Amino acid sequence: MRIATWNVNSIRSRIDRVAAFLERSDVDVLAIQETKARDDQFPFDRFTRLGYEVVQHGVNQWNGVAIASRVGLEDVRTGFEGMPGWGDPLAPEARALGARCDGVRIWSLYIPNGRSLEDPHMTYKLEWLAALTTAGRAWLAADPTDQIALLGDWNVAPFDEDVWSVEYYEGKTHTSPGERAAFQGVLDAGFTDVVRPFLPGPGVYTYWDYTRLAFQKRRGMRIDFALCSPALAARVTGASIDREERKGKGASDHAPVVIGVS
User: Fold this and answer.
1) What is the domain count for the chain?
2) Is 0.90 topped by the overall pTM?
3) Domain harbouring 225, CATH code
4) Which of 39, 49, 138, 236 has the smallest set of CB atoms within 10 Å of its CB?
5) Residue percentage of the chain with pLDDT more than 90
């Protein structure tokens, strides 16, 4: 089985590229983030024509997550236990969607950005990751043999090698000690970054800003990850980052991350 995660930065703007990627990549399951679409705006028919079942969770023009699968789509869950909300009044955002695909519990996750180190959104981000850590630990405690994939845009670069310039990001989001500790908390709960062993850094990125020719100058970040439970991590046979999808007209600012599972 081939499983991928991709922040598409608007499914309505990128649906042609997403469909072409599915056709050429032979991916069985795709976790999608930042769909930026309500459910009634999502192009379900394009996935159906390609042989994929798809479920989407979107409430407005922001955020949004989806899962497309050609190997089954069962036990769909919107959000996870204890997931904090945002706004006034507080409400859960469309940032987490889970489904069982051929025995694997797939989670498509779009972790909050944080905005700045002093912004209330940063507190929300850290609380969100803490809640995910608690939920993940409980899932593994309930069934240590469960096969779980936490896939998505984590908006955290866990190590210095995951950014093109440590100095550039000093004092900014994504690389602060608190964010890195929160990401490490998910790993400490029992999950493994299954991509890094196959694609070690430095210079291995999944995101490049649209401005200042960042992609062409190789000024990127590694912020998209596949974190797997022990039972699933043991089955991973390879990983790749599809840089081709960051090239050309109409590209997302993220590239798909793909893992192979035996």
Assistant:
1) 1
2) yes
3) 3.60.10.10
4) 49
5) 98
